[in-house]
Design goal:
This protein has about 400 residues and is an alpha/beta fold. The chain is built from 15 helices and 15 strands. β7 and β8 form a beta hairpin. The longest helix has 19 residues.
Length: about 400
C-alpha cells in the first residue's frame, strides 16, 4: 500500500529540496527558439541544446508535415516485427554517410543507444575504461554490461594509459568518452585517446551528442574536428540537439557491429520504432545541413563573440571554443540567485551548483545558438554585467 511508501518518498523529496537539487519545471508556452514565452513573458532563451536554431523553425515544421502525411504518426510495433519503414532505413544510411561510418542503427534516444551498445558487445572477458565525467547514459549503459569497469581522471591521458597497461590481459578493451562534456563545454582530446588506442589495440567509442551537426569542417562531430574520423571506431549520438531537437539517437560504426546490435540490442528489439515523423524530419535535416553551412558559421561567430565579451567585463569563462559556455560564479547561492534574477532581465538561463558540479565551482551555463542575434547576445552580456556587479563577481 502507498501509505507505507509515502513517508519514504516525502523524506527523499525533503532531502532533495534541502540540498538545493530540486528541479522545478519551467513551462514554455511557445515554440522552442531564440525567444520563448514562459510565465506569460517573452524572454531570450540561452539554455537549450538548439545549437543550429532549427528546433522550432518553420523549415522543420514544414518538413514534419510532409513526413507525417507520407508515413503516418506511429507504427505500434518494434523494428523487427512491422516497425521498419523505408524512412528508417534511409535515415540509417544517411546517418552512416554523414558520420563517415559503415552503417548505423537508430534508437529512440542516445540513452537507449548507449544502453543497447555496451550490454550487447562487452562481456566478462572484457574491460571498459570510461572518462570520470562521462554522461549518465554512458554510466548506466556500462552498468548493464558484464565487462570489468575502470574510470580514468577527466581527460587525463596519463591516467588513461595506466588503466590500459593494467588491463592488457583482457580479451578486449574499450575506451569510452563524451566528445563534448556538457557541464564544461570541454572537448575530449581524441587525438591522444586514439593514439593510445592504437598503441594498446583498444576500441574507441565516442558519445558525440553535443557535437553532431556543427563541430568539424562539415559539422560531422569531434572526430572530424580532431581529424580522427578513421580512428574512432564507434559513435553514439542524438538527433535531439543540433539535428532538430526532437528525439532519437543512433550507433554508427562497422557493419558487423551494427548487425550484432540489430540482433541483440534490447533497447531496439523491445521498444517501439522511432516515430516516422521524427525519422523523416531528421533525414531532411541531415540533407539540409549540407546546403546551409551558414548555420555553423553563425553559431561559431556568436560563440566567439559572447566568450570575448564576457572576458572583457571580467567574468571567468573556461577555455574552449564550444557554444556551451559555463560562466563561473563560484558560490551556489549566487548562481541560483543570478539565474532567477536573469529572468527579470528577460534572459532565460540555468544555474548549477554542488553536488552537480564541484564545491566552489557553481556556474551559470549559457548555450549559444545560430538563431541568436548579436543584439540578443549584447542583452545577455549586459544582464551578466549588471548582476555580476550586484553579486560582487565582477
Amino acid at each position: 500500500m502507498f501509505s507505507s511508501l509515502q513517508p519514504i518518498i516525502t523524506k527523499v523529496l525533503e532531502d532533495i529540496r534541502s540540498t538545493g537539487l530540486y528541479k522545478p519545471q519551467r513551462v514554455i508556452e511557445s515554440r522552442q527558439g531564440a525567444k520563448v514565452v514562459t510565465q506569460g513573458k517573452e524572454v531570450i532563451n540561452f539554455c537549450a541544446n538548439n545549437y543550429l536554431g532549427l528546433a522550432g523553425s518553420d523549415v522543420l515544421v514544414d518538413a514534419a508535415k510532409k513526413a507525417l502525411e507520407q508515413y503516418g504518426y506511429g507504427l505500434s510495433s518494434v523494428r523487427f516485427i512491422c516497425g521498419t519503414q523505408t524512412v528508417h532505413k534511409e535515415l540509417e544510411q544517411e546517418t552512416a554517410c554523414f558520420l563517415k561510418k559503415d552503417a548505423a542503427l537508430i534508437f529512440g534516444s542516445c540513452w537507449e543507444a548507449n544502453e543497447g551498445l555496451f550490454a550487447s558487445v562487452l562481456g566478462e572477458e572484457d574491460a571498459v575504461i570510461s572518462d570520470a565525467l562521462n554522461h549518465a547514459s554512458i554510466i548506466d549503459g556500462l552498468r548493464l554490461c558484464k565487462a570489468e569497469r575502470h574510470v580514468y581522471a577527466h581527460m587525463d591521458l596519463k591516467d588513461l594509459e595506466e588503466k590500459l597497461r593494467a588491463t592488457q590481459s583482457k580479451r578486449m578493451r574499450c575506451i569510452v568518452t563524451d566528445g563534448v562534456f556538457s557541464m564544461e563545454g570541454s572537448i575530449a582530446p581524441l587525438s591522444g585517446i586514439c593514439g593510445l588506442a592504437e598503441k594498446y589495440d583498444t576500441l574507441v567509442v565516442v558519445d558525440d551528442s553535443h557535437a553532431t551537426g556543427f563541430m568539424g569542417a562539415e559539422g560531422r562531430g569531434t572526430h572530424e574536428y580532431h581529424h580522427v574520423e578513421d580512428k574512432v571506431d564507434v559513435i553514439t549520438t542524438t538527433y535531439g540537439k543540433a539535428l532538430g531537437g526532437a528525439t532519437g539517437g543512433c550507433v554508427a560504426g562497422p557493419k558487423e557491429l551494427i548487425d550484432l546490435l540489430t540482433q541483440r540490442a534490447r533497447t531496439s528489439l523491445f521498444t517501439n520504432a522511432l516515430p516516422p515523423v521524427v525519422a523523416g524530419t531528421t533525414l531532411f535535416v541531415l540533407r539540409y545541413l549540407a546546403e546551409h553551412p551558414e548555420l555553423r558559421e553563425r553559431l561559431w561567430g556568436n560563440t566567439k563573440y559572447f566568450r570575448e565579451k564576457m572576458r572583457e567585463i571580467g567574468f571567468r569563462v573556461p577555455d574552449s571554443v564550444h557554444p556551451i559556455v559555463p560562466v563561473m560564479v563560484g558560490e551556489g547561492r549566487a548562481a541560483q540567485g543570478m539565474a532567477e534574477e536573469m529572468l527579470n532581465e528577460g534572459i532565460y538561463v540555468i544555474g548549477f551548483s554542488y553536488p552537480v558540479v564541484p564545491q566552489g565551482e557553481a556556474r551559470i551555463r549559457v548555450q549559444i545558438s545560430a538563431a541568436h542575434t548579436v543584439e540578443q547576445i549584447d542583452a545577455l552580456v549586459a544582464a551578466f554585467e549588471k548582476l555580476g556587479r550586484k553579486y560582487g563577481i565582477v
